[in-house]
Design goal:
With 294 residues, the chain is of the alpha/beta class. It has nine helices and 13 strands. A seven-stranded parallel beta sheet has the order 3-2-1-4-5-6-11, sandwiched between helices.
């Protein structure tokens, strides 16, 4: 199996490289060399025309079994979610990748997010048929990159799988999500202040995210597929699990019980089409994260 992978030094990409079968030949495109790389790395800024042209020349004669596109702009904080950054990292980068490398493989796999769904219209577990409408520049540009890739795959008759990941956790997460924020606060002995205590989140571990990508590489094109666990954990339960696990003196202050929509993923399509079955369920592997936050 020969793959072209983007985003291999990122939160998801590095775990995918660590878990990919050792007999796979992987060529990585990116601005940073992956720590766990055993194959070949080509320095490339996907949003820069000259950079991607140079990278394309280096693999001009090569054909791949699959292109795995995991590179993306993901804002670290709400203030970091700007239109320019999101457009460059999600839309322009995807267009450039397809333009210069798309014809080198019959199979394309795109990493996306459950943030493309319109949370105001979600009732019950999220299926792939739920209404989409990104509530942030990040979500909107990820949705745009999905649509662009779908059009490309249809016109050129490519196999396509779009993996919409739920709320991820695992490893060292640089994004200001609830779990990393709670771990930092708990280890410092600071109070954990939460809003929407009863709101549910479907936490999917990066091990299972990596497994879903491996499943997608081995399967036929499945279209849009949700990746999560199918289980919801409340924000208050999340905070309490972290306080208990860290044996912290932190107190939990609840400002509101409700607020926002639940994010719980229906994974039946992934189970059927990709043979994907999650193996890690929060708070599993929480201790591993805590060690990294010392």
């Amino acid at each position: 199996m020969k793959l072209l992978v983007t985003g291999s030094s990122g939160f998801v990409g590095r775990r995918f490289l660590e878990m990919a079968p050792t007999d796979w030949e992987i060529i990585c495109l990116g601005r940073s060399q992956p720590d766990s790389l055993t194959g070949r790395w080509i320095r490339c800024d996907l949003s820069d025309q000259k950079s991607i042209e140079s990278a394309a020349k280096q693999v001009s004669d090569e054909i791949f079994d699959a292109i795995v596109h995991l590179a993306a702009f993901v804002p670290r904080t709400a203030a970091d979610d700007t239109l320019d950054k999101a457009r460059l990292g999600n839309i322009d980068a995807t267009i450039n990748l397809l333009t210069y490398f798309g014809e080198k493989s019959e199979k394309i796999i795109i990493g996306s997010t459950a943030e493309v769904y319109d949370q105001s219209k979600i009732h019950g577990p999220i299926t792939e048929d739920n209404v989409v409408a990104g509530g942030s520049y990040y979500g909107s540009t990820k949705l745009a990159s999905e649509l662009i890739t779908q059009s490309y795959a249809k016109k050129l008759n490519k196999e396509l799988t779009i993996l919409r990941f739920s709320v991820m956790y695992g490893g060292y997460d640089p994004i200001a999500r609830a779990i990393p924020n709670f771990i930092r606060a708990a280890k410092a002995g600071d109070d954990l202040t939460i809003r929407g205590a009863k709101v549910l989140r479907d936490y999917v571990h990066t091990d299972d995210v990596a497994r879903s990508i491996i499943c997608a590489v081995n399967a036929n094109g499945a279209g849009v597929v949700n990746i999560g666990t199918g289980r919801g954990v409340s924000i208050q339960e999340t905070a309490q699990a972290i306080v208990d696990s860290t044996q912290s003196i932190s107190r939990i202050t609840v400002l509101s019980e409700d607020g926002g929509s639940d994010i719980v993923i229906d994974i039946s399509r992934a189970e059927k089409l990709l043979d994907y079955h999650p193996e890690v369920f929060f708070p599993d592997k929480l201790k591993e994260m805590e060690e990294l936050y010392k």
